[in-house]
Amino acid sequence: MIEFFTALTNMLYQSWWLALLSSFIWGIISVILSPCHMASIPLIVGFINDRETITKARAAFLSTMFALGILITLGIIGFVTSLLGRIMGDIGGVGNYIVGVFLVFIGIYMMDIIRLPFLEKGVSPIIKKKWALSAFLIGLIFGIALGPCAFAFMAPMLGIVFNMASTNLLYAVLLLFAFAVGHCLVIILAGTFTEIVRKFLNWNEKSGGVIWLKRICGVLIITAAVYMFVTA
């Protein structure tokens, strides 16, 4: 694994297309190898499974809104913490507690223990628009606790980005964009694949498979909350 990370870092200093590929891969592994980011998978899967009359395109759109919410929060956190002279993304344990409490509520909602009005199901056009806003807001809040994890994976790429920003701003932006695409892709695929499987198995929101999948996602989300409390 160390050799793999070393090779990815070296790619950042080679040709432009290898650097972009490396940034893209860093974006992917920032989700699949991070305990903090992995919590985003059951979160979006449970959210998608709780929607009625949803298409694959709609599932992909909601997953994208969720991922964009995370990225926007990470961008804001990175900018603010760097201005304050702290380690980029380091907001202390407060952020973990905030998101941990939020995830506990989401988790017990997925387990059908409580109701959260802004996540309630519906089929009207107005409610469907709120789904997108809900996914986006959840991503914004969830991104608060991801700062240290995300910027740890971004560190090699950010070093190059900061060095090149003054001389080749476009290239620096492209590196960040490649990372963002890789990061979002994992989350979008998870949400979209969930709906594909549900359609294939002919599940609806009342099917036993959907109910138990939501409950499992709820348990995983609460587990992630406990992890955040412990690491805070």
Description:
The protein has 232 residues and is an all-alpha fold. The protein has one domain. Helices cover 78% and strands 0% of the residues. The protein contains 10 helices and no strands. The protein has helices spanning 2-11, 16-32, 35-38, 40-49, 56-83, 93-110, 125-142, 147-165, 169-200, 208-231. Helix 8 (147-165) packs antiparallel against helix 9 (169-200). The longest helix has 32 residues, at 169-200. The chain starts with a helix and ends with a helix. Mean pLDDT is 75; it is low at 122-127.
Spell the H/E element sequence. Answer: HHHHHHHHHH
Number of strands: 0
Total tally of structural domains: 1
- The radius of gyration over CA amounts to 18 Å
Number of helices: 10
Beta strand %: under 5%
Give the biggest beta sheet.
Answer: none
Quote the distance from N terminus to C terminus.
27 Å
Helix coverage percent: over 70%
Q: How would the global form be characterised?
A: globular
Kindly name the structural category: mainly alpha
Q: Mean of residue pLDDT? A: 75
Uncertain parts? 122-127
Summarize the helices and strands and which ones pair or pack.
Layout: H1 2-11, H2 16-32, H3 35-38, H4 40-49, H5 56-83, H6 93-110, H7 125-142, H8 147-165, H9 169-200, H10 208-231
